[in-house]
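Hi team,

As requested, here is the filled-out complex form for the flavin-adenine dinucleotide run. I kept the field names the same as last time so the parser does not choke. Let me know if anything looks off before we queue the next batch.

— J.
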Amino acid sequence: MFHYSNNYYTATMRYTSPRPTLIGNVQADVCVIGGGLAGLSTALELVSRGRSVVLLEAARVAWGASGRNGGFVLQGWSEGLSSIERRCGTEMARALFKLSLEGVDIVRETIDQHQLQGCAPTSGKLSVLRYDDGDSLQRLRDRMAKEFNFEMEYLDTHAIRARLNTERYFHGLRDSHGFHFHPLNYCLGVADLIEAKGGVLYENSPMIRVKSQGDRHQVVTQQGVIDCGSVVHCCGGYGGPEFGRLRRAFLPIATYAVLTEHLGDRLRDTIRTTDAVGDNRRASDYYRVVDGDRLLWGGHITTRNVQDEKRLAHMLTDDILNVFPQLRGLQIEKAWSGLMGYARHKMPHIGMLSPGIWACTSFGGHGMNTAPIGARVVAEAICGESDRYRLFDAYGLEWNGGPFGPAAAQTVYTGLKLMDMFQEARSTRRAAKH
Ligand SMILES: Cc1cc2nc3c(=O)[nH]c(=O)nc-3n(C[C@H](O)[C@H](O)[C@H](O)COP(=O)(O)OP(=O)(O)OC[C@H]3O[C@@H](n4cnc5c(N)ncnc54)[C@H](O)[C@@H]3O)c2cc1C
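And here is what came back:
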């Protein structure tokens, strides 16, 4: 029997009643496997189109990454736009960027339209630069406006430091389209909407295998079977060998977050914005203020899932104090980890795996907008409305490196961290000279 883990979101979650375990045989048009944001959004898109849907969740609704993340809902994908452009060309990169914006809008509109409780959406995201190169940031702003029709505001050192009281940051870009929110309450709200539209959710009901015969599929759990016309795999970083070749195409990567005690004026003097903040590091630190005077801070990725709360608290406190030394002595009240599914190409797996079997997964560290739009294009395809899922044709099931995958990923990450440190040290030396 799975229970929600102890984190900020579960401590502030809206009421939700447990869903039953699947027992016996059930029929549906579509079976969605996985009850994170990808699975829930897929189910909602499908029931809204009149399909009968059963969703199977191995643990609880949004028990995985979707219920314990940073809560940033922003344009873009886990893979950077320039890399997408290099692989797919400018036109395709534009189309994919547009989809990512639609993903942000889906979440915002769903909250507004259904007045979902406890989501606390708050507009604004600051991307801050930890070294002194405002020109490159202004070029990026201009390119985003010209080529992707996306406006951002440039903030110079004075403007950034007026908002964030630290000498670590030099420049920033403000995205007013993005927002941050309570992801677990959002998912619980979506789960209620699915049920209100006739969808059925089962918890503590892991899929064990899928058997296909002609155009029917049997999704088998410990105590039941779902007979359906289509199956959508939405397992995120938590899927095991039961997902077959899909599992061999992603790596589960762990990442971490902490919540501080109430810091009162110490925090208000330090962070003078309600925007979410993320730095430019390749493996970025990101944070936001919650409950008025507490810091929710995230960062680090590892291929081994560190779950020792004391160690996590220590690790992320060091990161916080590196940026805001004036907060020395702060207490961490909660520390937690979560798994993300990453493909080697860092784009999601969205598309048909075999007739009637779909993937909508591997959203990496950027799933809050991409999972909802991934869900929409898969639902459109199942209902014969569009072939927008083909925009992801360039991002198939590349082998994850098998037993060597985690070591390779950790080496790449360490290399990226060293590059960040080198660039920042150079900038600090330059600043000291002037
Ligand atoms: C600490 C952290 C911070 C993050 N911050 C951000 C952020 O600020 N913004 C952002 O955009 N993204 C962020 N991400 C990434 C984001 O959370 C994920 O990309 C997104 O939640 C993925 O959703 P999902 O539905 O694919 O996966 P999940 O939410 O992990 O859901 C997958 C579900 O599938 C279930 N499952 C697995 N196997 C089976 C099976 N056999 N049968 C049935 N069910 C199964 C699991 O139990 C799980 O509930 C963060 C992630 C973490 C961990």
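Two things worth flagging: The mean pLDDT is 93. The first strand starts at residue 24 and ends at 33.

Thanks,
J.
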